[in-house]
Amino acid sequence: MTRGNQPVPRLLSIVRNVHHLIASCPVESTTRMERSLEGLATDGSASSQGLLGVLVATMAWACRCDPPFPGSDPNDRRPDLVLEILRAIYALGACVRTEPSGDITTHIGIILCELLRYPSADERLYEIKLAVVSLLLNAPREYGAYLSNNGGIEALVEIMEYQTSLVVVERTSSFAEDAAAVVPILLVLLRLVGIHESILKVVKEAVFPPELEIEFDRMAADEIGKGRSEGKVNAKNMAPLDAPQGTLRYRLIRLMTWTESSVKRSACELLWALCDGNSTQFVLRTGFGNAIHFLGMKGCVNLPAGVET
User: Fold this and answer.
1) What are the domain boundaries of the chain?
2) Using N-to-C axis directions, what is the helix angle for 197-207 and 175-193, rounded to 10°?
3) Is the dihedral of CA 105, 110, 114, 117 positive or negative?
4) d(CA 8, CA 307)
5) Whole-prediction pTM value?
6) Distances 106 to 28, 100, 135, 150 between C-alpha atoms, Å
7) What confidence tens digit (pLDDT) does each residue in 81-107 have?
8) Cα 150-137-94 angle, rounded to 5 deg
9) What is the DSSP string of 67-96?
């Protein structure tokens, strides 16, 4: 891998073995690979930055060499190589607790954003995007600004659009698959909206379109004017005021009462953040019936005795 200009199938085979070693015996294998790279290292080379540096350099080469990535030839294995590298980096991050250098962190962030901006129509590229989402679960906070300034947030919202449709509309075959499909993207966006106001604005406008807010505000004022309230909530509409079937907000609200606990918790937390942590706004947008359990967890309403929080 450190030599460069290797045939892609050979590199793919090597990276698969590296990934397998990291996953099967993380401490011993990573230690031995790092020591091997120390013997090859020269100043400024990828090998001088350790195993992560070599993986990132190989991924950058695969994405940027000719022909333009991902290639029109179905036999082009570079998408497979990039996907395997992303999975190996994820496994490496789970077993190595030392922080990578600033240069490598920046390099990874740039490549991840490039990958997110590719069209999603190619199934190979979409699988790569899902692997990027997994990496972003534990990405440094400073990635938020870079993603925001380079079209990464819009790409993540598109992924949320598709993944929520996959679960709510097309339906997966199991609760575990539901969680695998939507929880990572919901948690990534939840983390990002809490970091940057500009990201919160982009995601909120995707879920609650600005052109519909005047009518929503009118309905909200009417509802609050009815004078019904409970606890810290100044509205008690049982259903969402504006969530037409098929919209992204409709699907997220559906997930609030999903059977799988991690799915409904992550959907509730993201919608709560998009409502600025305002309990009344949360009820107006999602409906008291959908929101009551989560509001109880937040201490905004009193749940009946014996209800788990």
Assistant:
1) 1-16+46-135, 211-297
2) 130
3) positive
4) 56
5) 0.90
6) 27, 10, 14, 14
7) 999 999 999 999 866 655 666 788 888
8) 130
9) SPTT-S-TT--HHHHHHHHHHHHHHHHHH-
